[in-house]
Amino acid sequence: MNKKILLGRRLRELRKRKGINQEQLAELVSVEPATISNIENGKNYPSMTNLESILKVLNCSFLDAFDFEHTNTNENLIEEINLALKNNPSKISDFYKIIKALIK
Q1: What is the pTM of this model?
Q2: 20-52, pLDDT tens digit by residue?
Q3: SS3 (DSSP) at 41
Q4: Cα(78)–Cα(84) distance, rounded to whole angstroms?
């Protein structure tokens, strides 16, 4: 999955855990709310300065921000499978056989 999207999702998760909305975070970081929205939606990477400020407000480390492994929800996994199938249409039969073998 795209790293911008993963970073955005992770920052959104950390923000929600802190209990603040995008507008509050934007005010605390001194950026426009659209900037936070674009970062969280994977449209833009944050600048290093903004990332440092966001992490300071969220009381998180860089390691926390880039810890993507836990985000593999069923929804994310299905999205990745669909993307793999879309990008490899000749492999759909192989994917199907593997899935069938796993659920037997």
Answers
A1: 0.67
A2: 999 999 999 999 999 999 999 999 999 999 999
A3: coil
A4: 10
- Per-residue confidence (pLDDT) for residue 26, from 0 to 100: 98
Note the helical H segments in 20-91. 22-29, 33-40, 48-58, 62-65, 74-87
Closest by CA position to 60, among listed 29, 92, 82: 29
DSSP conformational letter for 43: S
Q: How many CB atoms lie within 10 A of CB 23?
A: 12
- Per CATH, the homologous superfamily of domain 3-69 is lambda repressor-like DNA-binding domains (1.10.260.40)
Residue 45 near residue 7, CB atoms below 8 Å? yes
